[in-house]
Write a structure and sequence with these properties.
The structure is a single chain. This protein has 220 residues and is α/β, with parallel strands linked by helices. The chain has two domains: 48 residues, no CATH class; 149 residues, Spore Coat Polysaccharide Biosynthesis Protein SpsA, Chain A. 43% of the residues lie in helices and 15% in strands. Helix 5 packs parallel to helix 8. The longest helix has 19 residues. The chain is globular and about 50 Å long.
């Protein structure tokens, strides 16, 4: 993944790997690649705390480096590195760009019916409860303008699983930023297992209405 990203990015772009003390040697491998490849940095965290806190740590590090655009993506090729320049280009006319599976031209590959139903149904549920037009609220392939992450109080973001993706997009939209979706093909990983769990699904179910209530109270 790092070699593929370096090949499509410009000389001033940087790649940040977040390693939550992975027991399989990912951190050590990332360190060796960072020493070999220009523009690669590794942020080591002492323990696994969930998807949301890991991304927040990455965002804070990116803001420290004065990055103007911050892209988040998975590291298992479900998100195609070749699509990164498309997200960056779309940010010329948007504050938050979403790589979307559920707009015309987008889609998923190698998913079973249950996983498709959970993902599509989750996005529909969030869209209806939050009253927002974004179609792929649970996706994790995004490009933020710096101003978006500076405007969102990151310390107040409490979601840990896929609800994190919903919360960040909703907060950006409620703050008045322009959110656009561009189509991507999401291909399920060939090796490894999904992080999807009952806890993650339940968090999203109860977190979404709480976000809506917070917005109605003016608390977001």
């Amino acid at each position: 993944m790092l070699r593929a990203l370096v090949a499509v990015l410009g000389p001033d772009d940087r790649v940040l790997v977040i390693d939550d003390n992975s027991p399989d040697g990912t951190g050590e491998l990332a360190d060796r690649l960072a020493a070999e490849l220009d523009g690669v940095e590794v942020l080591h965290r002492p323990r696994k705390q969930g998807l949301g806190p890991a991304y927040l740590a990455g965002f804070r590090r990116a803001l420290e480096t004065k990055a103007e655009l911050i892209v988040e993506m998975d590291c298992d090729f479900s998100h195609d590195p070749q699509d990164v320049p498309r997200l960056i280009a779309a940010a010329a006319d948007a504050d938050l760009v979403l790589g979307s599976r559920y707009v015309p031209g987008g889609g998923v590959e190698n998913w079973g019916a249950i996983r498709r139903a959970i993902s599509w149904g989750g996005s529909l549920y969030a869209r209806l409860v939050l009253g927002i037009s974004v179609r792929d609220l649970t996706g994790g392939f995004k490009c933020f303008r710096r101003a978006v992450l500076e405007a969102i109080p990151l310390g107040e973001v409490g979601s840990r699983g896929y609800a994190f993706q919903i919360e960040l997009t909703y907060r950006a939209s409620r703050t008045g930023f322009r959110v656009v979706e561009i189509p991507i093909r999401f291909v399920d990983r060939v090796v490894g297992g999904s992080k999807m769990s009952r806890t993650i699904v339940l968090e999203a179910i109860w977190k979404v209405p709480l976000l809506r209530l917070a917005a109605l109270r003016g608390a977001l």
